[in-house]
Amino acid sequence: CAPSVFCIGVSSWVLRKDLGNSVKSELFWKGCGREFLRYFSLVFLSLGIGSVSAFVMPMIIRQRLPEVDSAAYYMITRFAELATYASVTLAFVMFPMVSEAHAKGQKSLKLFLYTSAGSVGFGVLASLVLWLFGGFIFDLIPTCRPYVGYVPDMAFLALTMSLAMACGNFTDYEFACNRFAFLWWSLPLAVLQTLLVVCFTGYTFFYGRLPASVVDWMGSLHIATLRNLIWVMFAFVTIRIVIIAVQLSVRQLRQRSL
Asked: Nearest 5°: phi and psi at 34?
């Protein structure tokens, strides 16, 4: 934390020194405080609910999955997360460029599409490398060797993570354009995913509260396995991608008709 605070402080001082007296200092909350509060509140709401969902999934995996699946999840995520690194870097570059283009009334969709293509492309490549060489890598590490059988799951998880990061790029893109309508579907979808995972992995809680046939059906799905949970993540990511594609297509058609 201290290095980050130091970098922010030094950057602010250098920026102020370079600007000198050519730029008049104004308190932002006097001119646009209400707009800033609106923007901050919506971003905070989105990130807050997203953080809860991101917290619950690992907790469920560690607490409700078989011990070997829980341990395997820890191992494979160390490698699967490599597929997300390009997306994080590209998002940092995309956001200010999109924001500037939007402020000037310029089109910025291509910036988002290029960023997403780069994120997914790198993720697919990383997933392929993990699928082809993951077994060899795990054999070289004694602590990873018992989890060689989870290498296909690792590759699939890497692909799912890269697609999820592409959806995150869409969130950044909308934030940069000061658009928040997507929250009407993205937040309920995140809550729905979390609730489904919590309920179906702890289905025994519902005995005596729901009809036994319903609870038995929930148990028959065997959601509480690592592979099935990855499939659940992939399914919800796919739903998000479809909705994003529809939303962007509708927006483009409306702009062309004007």
From this structure: -65, -40
CB environment 80-110: b (16+ within 10 A), e (fewer): bebbbebbeebbeebbeebbebbeeeeebee
240-258 pLDDT, tens digit each: 999 999 999 998 888 887 6
* CA neighbor of 214 nearest in space, from 224, 204, 225: 204
pLDDT tens readout for residues 173-207: 999 998 998 999 998 999 899 888 888 888 887 88
Residue in 241, 97, 247 with CA at minimum distance from that of residue 162 = 241
159, 127 in Cβ contact below 8 A?
yes
- Predicted model pTM: 0.84
